[in-house]
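User: Please predict structures.

Assistant: First:
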Amino acid sequence: MTADSDKAKAFERGVRTFSLLFTRWMDSNKWTHPKMVALARAANGGLGWLHSSQISGLRHGTLTNPGPRTFAAIAALNSAIWSYEQTKALIKGTTSSLDYEKASAITDEEGKPPSAGWWLNVFLGDQIPDGVDLKGDWYTEKQAEGVSKAWATLTRKLIAEAGNDLITDLDRILATSYPAGDHDRKAKVKEVLFNQSTWNPEQLRAEMPAISNLVKELGGPEDDIKMKELLESM
């Protein structure tokens, strides 16, 4: 194997790792695309260096050549969230409509928010995030299919038990309880709920924080581990 092919494989792994890290961070903080864009702009001194299309591309691993300002904006937002965690001082330029008091920052091995260079190196495959669980929730194709169907069964049950209708109330439920604002991902959730599709292993790993939140909001298990165990046992 040549050095060039090694570098290419490392880059491919880096893009996938960044996709997972970025998606988990965004979804665990319950940020929609517009909210993340607005927060990044405020954290970056009013500079709009992070756009919804970039967010979608990073989440899906389809944006393979982002500019340096993208990583600068992500690092600025993460650093601002870390500062809020430490001091509770609002991010300059934000209002109560940009609710982030429960958000968490990504930290490096020293417990500090990493630089834009760190985020870039993760993307390039030259930096392995330390202290962030990126090894769990690996599934085979068959396991991903089974967990997808189990999640759909559980979610339909919770929707019905809450007195909601799967057809007429679904858009409202997704708008209030599913944290990702990506249109394609919402469409996929609907397909899974109606047994028209399932997530593949990589999609399921990325979706787990968002669909876990949806189950919690509907009255399901609050603990992520218990919910994961429940889905895998169904």
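Second:
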Amino acid sequence: MLGQGGTEGLSGLAQNFQSQGLGDTFSSWVSTGENKSIQPQQLQGALGADVLQQLTGGSGMSLQAALPLLAQLLPAVIDKLTPQGQLPQNNNMLQQGLGALFGRR
């Protein structure tokens, strides 16, 4: 999940953000400094329709309701998953964390 083109987890997400010109934003979430904000439309482009459908599909939330929530929460989630300022080896952590937020196990 959370990666396009066969790349998953935080590494895949970092690549998606980079390809959308949002690499600096994603890097700010991983680093130990202040997190840059992201607009829901930017997040939609970086995540892609398939990932957003996976995230919201079982939650009962519409995409319009989920995007602003994700734009607020995702920087904090990634920041908490990367306390040392580096991507963790366990790519499943992000999937598990976001799945819990949206009621999926």
